[in-house]
Amino acid sequence: GNNGAVGAAASSGAAAAAAMMMRSSISPIIDSKQEQLGPVLLEGTFGKRGWLAPTFRRRYMMLHLPSPSGSRNVPHISYYLPETFKYRDTIELYEGTVTLLKHYKDGRTFQIKWLQSGKSLVLRAATPKTARIWIKTLSLLTNAEIQSAMKELHAKMKRFEITLHEYEKLLFSITSLDEEDEEDEEEEEEEES
């Protein structure tokens, strides 16, 4: 697979890219319905606010692009208990908005809100920088045009109109995150002057 490029694209560094390549070469990630999840774009430990109880519980999360062989044609987040890596659930990412929740005043708590259902998911990253990377990536993946392009690509793969290599190459170009984090660029410019 092209997992090394994915890790680098997500600006998570060489160590994360190497870890991603190691894991994907061992075995694909399978959810509780025995369905293969897509390539991992980002991963990390977050506080996830409960659907019913408004407390934050630690969860290990993986952000996946749509799997060429799976039934999911949208990006998704799988999450696990951090100590045991026991699978908990997979959340599909449909069109929506991703925003930093300023009333938490920590720069690391953000919300994914789905347009159609109105449901939302609140996550707390370990650092503001991690939150910025995830917000930027999730904003791209929940964009209507990107969602449409990914669904079209997935349908072409299902109809055998493109090869697996073409699918991965096109998927990564659609979801390209090669640009540096804008705020990091501004910080670097300030340091130079």
Shape: globular
Order of helices and strands: HHEEEEEEEHHHH
Mean pLDDT: 79
Number of helices: 6
Which range does the strand content fall in? 15-25%
Distance between the termini: 41 Å
Strand order of the largest sheet: 4-3-2-1-7-6-5
What Rg, in angstroms, do the CA atoms define? 17 Å
Q: How would you sum up the major sheet?
A: 7 strands, antiparallel
Poorly predicted parts? 1-27, 179-193
The chain-level structural class is alpha+beta
**Helix share, percent:** 25-40%
Number of strands: 7
Write the layout of secondary structure elements.
Layout (H helix, E strand, L loop, with lengths): L2 H7 L3 H14 L13 E10 L6 E9 L11 E5 L6 E6 L3 E5 L8 E6 L5 E5 L3 H14 L2 H15 L5 H11 L7 H11 L1
Antiparallel strand pairs: 1-2, 1-7, 2-3, 3-4, 5-6, 6-7
Describe this structure in words.
By secondary structure, this protein is an alpha+beta fold. The protein contains 6 helices and 7 strands; from the N terminus they run H-H-E-E-E-E-E-E-E-H-H-H-H. The chain has a 7-stranded antiparallel β-sheet. A hairpin with a 5-residue loop joins strand 6 and strand 7. Helix 4 packs antiparallel against helix 5. The longest helix is centred in the C-terminal third of the chain and has 15 residues. It is globular and about 45 Å long. The N and C termini lie far apart (41 Å). The N terminus and C terminus are likely disordered.
State the main characteristics.
193 residues, alpha+beta, 7-stranded antiparallel beta sheet, 24% strand, globular, disordered N terminus, disordered C terminus
